């Protein structure tokens, strides 16, 4: 055990805490009703900022403001330190104080997490050490000696990225994931916009599939339909992407965002719905075999990423 503890200390990753992170943590802390809650929120926010900076330094995109920890109501009601990793899921970033040996993981965050990162905040509040990572939690207190090295986090994220890829080249061979269906399987013939939505493909070679997406808004679900259409070309593949409202509805919600992201999570194209739009569409684009891209659908603080490989 002593040797493993020493390995954890040796593999800890030192990180600076910038003034902007400290100011943000102070702002969130001032909103709390008592000193104990303010301290909890302050250190949770610092831990999130440290992990976000590390992941972005490693080229891994995050949406820090998409989590409950950035929502004033959720922040007040629960002990949460979540960070959305673009297209992969939610990390929990748990702080401990300098030389503290036990990290407390509240049961309320044991659920939909892809892992837990433990961050030691130094007493100066200007530096931190990322101590390690755990995939799963089954008890509320974790000794720092039981953490995996931070490299385990990168391995986990890499594995998730491979699992989440939709292989579009397989569509050309008639192989489809079960969540991707024909439009006719999603829209009933009674829908007043059905004939428009189920119009013939742009060309006879085009392959169309659609997926029903739940954006899981804080105050309820918001369903939309994502359509992806492919046209094989000589040495590339053309891709068309649209968003429709679900069966039984005519218009998309206002200001719904549809974006094309590069493999590095950079935004390449973006469109937003206006009032009374019954669909939105990205400009048609092409890619080479093996090329990766992502499609982002977002509304307010809710966001879904679908990852693709041509």
From TrEMBL:
It holds the Pfam family DUF1822. InterPro entries: DUF1822. It comes from the Bacteria. This is DUF1822 domain-containing protein. The lineage of its organism: Bacteria, Bacillati, Cyanobacteriota, Cyanophyceae, Oscillatoriophycideae.
């Amino acid at each position: 055990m002593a040797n493993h503890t020493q390995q954890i200390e040796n593999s800890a990753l030192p990180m600076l805490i910038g003034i902007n992170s400290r100011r943000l943590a102070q702002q969130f802390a001032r909103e709390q009703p008592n000193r104990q809650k303010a301290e909890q929120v302050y250190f949770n926010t610092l831990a999130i900022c440290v992990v976000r900076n590390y992941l972005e330094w490693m080229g891994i995109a995050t949406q820090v403001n998409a989590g409950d920890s950035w929502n004033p109501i959720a922040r007040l009601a629960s002990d949460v330190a979540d960070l959305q990793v673009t297209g992969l899921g939610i990390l929990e970033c748990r702080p401990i104080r300098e030389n503290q040996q036990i990290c407390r993981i509240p049961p309320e965050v044991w659920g939909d997490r892809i892992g837990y990162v433990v961050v030691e905040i130094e007493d100066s509040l200007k530096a931190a050490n990322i101590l390690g990572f755990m995939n799963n939690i089954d008890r509320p207190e974790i000794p720092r000696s039981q953490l995996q090295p931070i490299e385990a986090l990168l391995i986990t994220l890499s594995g998730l990225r491979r699992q989440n890829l939709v292989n579009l080249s397989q569509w050309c061979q008639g192989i489809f994931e079960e969540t991707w269906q024909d439009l006719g399987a999603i829209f009933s013939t009674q829908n007043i916009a059905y004939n428009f939505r189920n119009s013939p493909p742009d060309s006879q070679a085009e392959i169309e599939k659609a997926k029903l997406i739940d954006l899981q808004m804080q105050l309820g679900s918001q369903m939309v339909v994502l359509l992806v259409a492919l046209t094989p070309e000589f040495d590339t593949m053309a891709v068309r992407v649209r968003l429709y409202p679900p069966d039984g509805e005519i218009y998309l919600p206002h200001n719904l965002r549809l974006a094309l992201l590069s493999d590095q999570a950079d935004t390449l194209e973006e469109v937003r719905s206006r009032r009374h739009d019954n669909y939105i569409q990205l400009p048609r684009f092409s890619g080479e075999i093996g090329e990766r891209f992502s499609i982002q659908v977002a509304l307010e603080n809710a966001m879904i990423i679908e990852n693709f490989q041509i």
